[in-house]
Design goal:
The chain is mostly beta strands. The chain has no helices and 29 strands.
């Protein structure tokens, strides 16, 4: 036997509705009521059209120790935030004004992402932007799906050109060139200063030794700072140097004529010292003529040269001054850089030679036998 109770409204003793049915809508309780489902009870076949809370208090509080599972999407409108932490330290939301979406850590800590492999892709999921796998694989940064920067245990690899602040540093990967102060280096290494003066400095901080390579309005120069020489090496061996006094030394490290080597001294002097061999070689190719020219105040006054392939000549370039040519076993007089017959005197009436020692005869007044 079954019983049926038909009512539209059930009230408590104070006349407040507990259950009310109207137009196929069932209302349980009233505003301000607490509806409790006992622990262990099961509510099934229940469909909610939504929860509407017009009060200023919290709409829903879940304090149960059980997990909450959603089998469908959680939808938050523009500018609505998912907040985490007592002080709302972490927020996830979409800002309708800027059109951006935010994952915001506003607390005192850090935003820590823990994963075996972090991959950031484009919205279509067709190209990587960032790939950060765990371990020694390193971090990869992409442009248009292509790796441009990779980290490894031995440093960083860059694919393509490298630009630092437009002109501060530029690496031209196509031509294997580096520019400092320019983004269009025309040579393997170009250092440029737009102000008009460029200085490249090599500095030894331990000994305070500094070398500058300078290009400015006066030209180019190399200088050392302090009382240190500027040394030139090949094959890790010193070959030449400018000492602190400005002397240029080749094959020696100190300025003195007792040490073998060549010096171009800052006092406008050249010294050559060589042990047991020729100290100076002057070689003229192809034609006869001057080997060495001598000047006084910028004016030529004499020369040493070669004639007929192997005759040494000593000439004065002053008008009608004499010279001499060494021709085999003869000493031939010269005047005005040419041979001179019967024009040159040996001594003068006031500057005479003391004695004349001869192993043969003397021709006087002519070249015939009677003149000998």
């Amino acid at each position: 036997m079954s019983s049926i109770l038909k009512v539209d409204t059930i009230q408590d003793q104070s006349g407040n509705n507990i259950i009310n049915e109207s137009g196929n809508v069932i209302t349980i309780g009233a505003s301000g009521d607490t509806i409790t489902v006992p622990a262990g009870a099961t509510v099934s076949g229940f469909t909610s059209a939504g929860i509407d809370d017009n009060a200023t208090s919290t709409a829903i509080t879940i304090s149960s120790g059980e997990d909450v599972t959603f089998t469908e999407n959680i939808l938050l409108g523009d500018n609505k935030k998912a907040k985490f932490g007592t002080g709302n330290d972490l927020e996830i939301y979409h800002d309708s004004t800027s059109g951006h979406s935010f994952l915001k850590e506003s607390g005192s800590g850090s935003l820590v992402i823990q994963t075996n492999n972090l991959v950031v892709q484009n919205a279509a999921g067709t190209a990587n932007i960032i790939n950060a796998p765990e371990g020694t694989a390193g971090l990869d940064l992409y442009y248009n799906g292509n790796i441009k920067l990779s980290t490894a245990n031995n440093g960083v690899s860059v694919t393509g050109d490298l630009t630092v602040d437009t002109n501060t540093l530029f690496v031209d990967s196509s031509n294997n060139r580096v520019g400092i102060g320019t983004n269009s280096p025309g040579f393997d290494l170009v250092v440029k200063d737009a102000s008009g003066a460029c200085t490249i400095r090599a500095e030894n901080g331990a000994d305070n030794k500094i070398v500058d390579l300078i290009a400015d309005s006066t030209g180019g120069l190399i200088r050392t700072i302090g009382s240190y020489p500027l040394v030139f090496n090949t094959n890790q061996t010193e070959r030449a140097r400018f000492d602190a006094s400005g002397n240029f030394l080749v094959g020696k490290t100190s300025s003195n004529t007792a040490t073998a080597g060549i010096e171009l001294r800052a006092t406008d002097q050249v010294t050559i010292t060589r042990s047991g061999n020729t100290g100076l070689i002057v070689n003229r190719l192809s034609s006869d003529g001057e080997l060495v020219k001598f000047q006084k105040d910028g004016t030529n006054f004499g020369s040493i040269g070669v004639k007929d392939g192997n005759n040494l000549t000593i000439d004065s370039t002053a008008s009608n001054h004499c010279g001499i040519e060494f021709d085999g076993g003869s000493y031939i007089p010269r005047r005005n850089s040419a041979t001179a017959d019967n024009l040159i005197d040996l001594g003068t009436s006031s500057t005479r030679y003391a004695h004349l020692y001869l192993g043969g005869g003397v021709f006087l007044g002519g070249t015939g036998t009677a003149n000998k």
